Amino acid sequence: MSARTVLFIAEPQSVAAIFPTLKAAGLQAGLADNLNGALGFIRKSRPCLIFCRPTLQSFDAQALLEQARAIDGFPPVVIFTASGSAEEATRFLDLGARDYWIEPLVWDKIKLVIPPEAPAQEADEPNAARQAHATPPSSATGATGGSPVPARFHIIGRHDAVLRVLALAKQVARSKATVLISGESGTGKEMFARYLHHNSDRADKPFVAINCAALPEHLLESELFGHEKGAFTGAISRKLGRFELAHGGTILLDEITEMDLGLQAKLLRVLQESEFDRVGGVETVSVDVRVLATTNRDIEGVVREGKFRQDLFYQLNVIPLKLPALKERGDDVSLLAEFFINKFAATYGLGQLAITENAKQWLMDYDWPGNVRELQNLMERAVLLAGQGPIQTRHFLMGDEQWTPDDLAGVSAGQKAASEAAPPTSMDEALSVMPLHEMEKRLILKSLEETTGNRTRAAELLGISVRTLRNKLNEYKKQGMDV
Asked: Over the Cα atoms of the chain, what is R_g?
């Protein structure tokens, strides 16, 4: 297998010093100094990661990120700069950047964001890992017989409720029928949407997702349909919308029930006629797009309340997929927990980690209000706190378990063993010997630092709600802290 490549879009003198280190680690380095050159390199060499310097002359980092959002499988992009700002960091992260760094580029940080290499052959997987994939071996390739479906889009589970939904998804994947995926937050709705795309005959075309709850109506319309130059204050050039970027492929309308009624009427036209007008435009744009939508609400109840158009509901609900809550999936909890433990142990360089029977039973007894997303975050926390020892219930930080000095010393030792895999500003400082409330405070403050003050992202990183994070920050303000 040839060495994987990391692409740098920057001035040669600003990145050349890191090239020998990459070579010693078995990686190749590519270099580009303009957008067309970068896109050509990406098509030809398929780098696993991109580092981009936004101050590069005659280069538009935003245009690169728009390409990344439009093309599924596009390598993750890390923005790096000699001097940045919180405003710039927030802008690039919102555009889809993987991270935002201040120079210098150092290997200890770079190695943490290098995507893991996919196994050479599926047959090399342990039996337990193969059984974790609910999909049969034949589903590992796209419907066109092309490249394998990325492992991150396999659905893990053996429960009948999951297998039924999966069987229906596979049956309709190659059609153009709209699919409405419903289920509680954290049940994996976007994973199923990506599964549908990657098992369709559109797998080699764009997969574009947009969260309808994240933007106000006027911005959402522009994001969906694009706008013409001068359409409104700040529209300094034509912008293509997500439907145009998804042409030939699939668009996911996440949390569709949050869309304003006025915009719902315009969306209905796209579904019925496959055409729309850009904001401020006079020309009708035709597109070929397969539409998937998700909701975590009772959409029929929202229709009865008059907050969602009935005709749009019928248009979206051609194929309904109802995802079960994690608490309804029985032994899948243990299966998913094992998967996430192995994943995060590998990420943090901790080797294979065991989990005690008491901890397994706790996982089975818990009701999982946050579903698979909560389980994933909880397993990352447990892996970090367990270090190299077995995972126990106290590592979940979900109850009133008391930590002894020996427990905390074990955490410190485990983090020391993982220090080769952690950057100088990682969580190990927050996990040194200290009272549990102080550990919690440091983790929260560190997450805010890592996300440049973005509370939503920080809450996701911590596995808590934004409301819980806000309450904690209010407590710290009462203690005199400037947060």
From this structure: 23
Single-letter residue type at 145:
G
Rounded to whole angstroms, how far apart are CA atoms 132 and 130? 5
Tell me how crowded residue 57 is: count the other CB atoms within 10 A of its CB: 7
130 within some domain? no
- Tell which wins on pLDDT, 426 or 49: 49
Give the SS3 label for residue 175.
coil
313 and 462 part of one domain: no
Amino acid at 401: E
Same domain, yes or no: 222 and 319: yes
Q: Distance between terminal CA atoms of the chain?
A: 49
Instruction: Output phi, psi for 384, to 5 deg.
Output: -65, -40
Pairing of strands 99-102, 77-81: parallel
pLDDT tens for 207-258 read: 888 989 888 877 888 889 988 888 887 777 778 888 988 899 999 999 999 9
> Which of 302, 324, 346 marks a domain boundary?
324
Point out the domain boundary residue: 78, 113, 148. 113
Q: Are 414 and 386 a contacting pair, CB within 8 Å?
A: yes
Which DSSP state fits 277? Answer: E
DSSP string, 90-158: HHHHHTT-SEEEESPP-HHHHHHHSPPPPPS-GGGS-HHHHHHB-S-GGGGB-TTS-SBPPGGGPPB--
Q: What is the pTM of this model?
A: 0.57
Alpha helices in 424-463 (DSSP H): 436-450, 455-462
Pairing of strands 290-295, 179-182: parallel
Residues 458/448/94/195 CA torsion (nearest 10 deg): -30
Peptide bond into 104 cis (omega under 30): yes
Q: How is residue 64 written in tokens?
A: 């690169």
How sure is the predictor about 260, in pLDDT bands with cuts at 50, 70 and 90? very high
Q: Which is it for the CA torsion 211, 212, 214, 215, positive or negative?
A: positive
CATH number at residue 210: 3.40.50.300
Summarize pLDDT for 307-346 with one digit per residue, the tens: 999 999 999 999 999 999 999 999 999 999 999 998 888 8
Q: Go through 356-380 and write b for each residue having 16 or more CB atoms within 10 A of its CB, e for each that does not.
A: eeebbebbeebebebbbbbbbbbbb
Provide the 10 A C-beta neighbour count for residue 140.
Answer: 15
Q: From CA 131, how far away is CA 185, in angstroms rounded?
A: 26
Domain that holds residue 17: 4-113
